[in-house]
Amino acid sequence: MNSASQRDRSQPKSPRVAVASALIAALFTTGVVSWSTPDGNLVVTLVPALAVGLAVFGLASWRSRRGESE
Asked: Residue 43 domain-assigned?
């Protein structure tokens, strides 16, 4: 194996910062939606949390890849 393929395997595909940011954003969104809605409907709480978490993950991944290329 050449060193380039070894370097690719050693780096995780999704940076830890992006995953941590997404989890924090999803938990925060879950708390805010749960607090602001009178019913504790799981779908009403989880759908916005998943949407925000995925958006934050995508943004953090994009920024980390962009920062590595510069």
From this structure: yes
Task: Judge whether 44 lies within some domain.
Answer: yes
pLDDT tens-digit profile of 20-64?
A: 999 999 999 998 988 888 876 778 888 999 999 999 999 999 988
For 50, list phi and psi in degrees, rounded to 5.
-65, -40
Q: Write the secondary structure of the chain as one string of H (helix), E (strand) and C (coil).
A: CCHHHHHHHHCCCCCHHHHHHHHHHHHHHHHHHHHHCCCCCHHHHHHHHHHHHHHHHHHHHHHHHHHHHC
Q: The whole model's pTM is what?
A: 0.70
Residue 6 lies in a domain: no
